[in-house]
Amino acid sequence: MNEPLVKAEVHGRVALLTLNRPKALNALNNELIAELYALLKKYDADNEIGCIVLTGNEKAFAAGADIGAMKDWTYHDVSSQDYLG
Question: Which residues form a coiled coil (predicted)?
Fold first, then answer.
């Protein structure tokens, strides 16, 4: 089974989300963003959660966009994306 790209833990009223692509310094790709968005929506809708903390693991919080994953994108691919909003 593959490791999740975003690990989620709940400690009382705090949801702790940890980016989990350490080999890529947690660079953001479509799959990681989709997992993160789903978890943010889930915990935002949960009245038992009072705070969401987002953190990185090992060496980095996040290196930014995963440029390697974007190398074959066209203008249409980029302009049609709706990231977290």
Answer: none
* Structural domains of the chain, with CATH: 6-78 (3.30.300.220)
> How far lies 70's CA from each of 21, 73, 78, in Å?
17, 5, 9
Residues with Cβ within 8 Å of residue 74, at least 6 apart in sequence: none
- Digit-coded pLDDT (tens) for 39-53: 999 999 999 999 999
CA 67 to centroid of chain Cα atoms: 16
Distances, alpha carbon 35 to alpha carbons 69, 72, 76, in Å: 16, 22, 23
- pTM as predicted: 0.83
Helix (H, G, I), strand (E, B) or coil at 29: coil
Phi, psi of 15 (to 5 degrees): -95, 125
- Which tokens go with 2? 């593959």
